[in-house]
Amino acid sequence: MESFHSNLLAWYDANARKLPWRIEPEKSKSGVLPDPYHIWLSEVMLQQTTVAAVKDYFFKFITLWPTVNDLAAASQDDVMKAWAGLGYYSRARNLKKCADYVATDLGGEFPQTQGELLKLPGIGPYTSAAISTIAFQNKAAVVDGNIERVVTRHTANATPVPEAKADCAAFMDAEMPKTRPGDFAQAMMDLGATICTPRNPLCALCPVQSGCKSHELGTMLSFPVKAPKKTKPNRKGAAFVLQRPDGAVWLRKRSDKGLLAGMSEVPTTEWTARIDGDIGAKSGPIDLDWNSKGTITHTFTHFHLELEVWQAVGPPPDNRGWWVEQDALANEALPTVMKKAIAAALPNAFGNV
Question: Among residues 26, 43, 306, 308, which one is catalytic?
Answer without folding.
Answer: 43
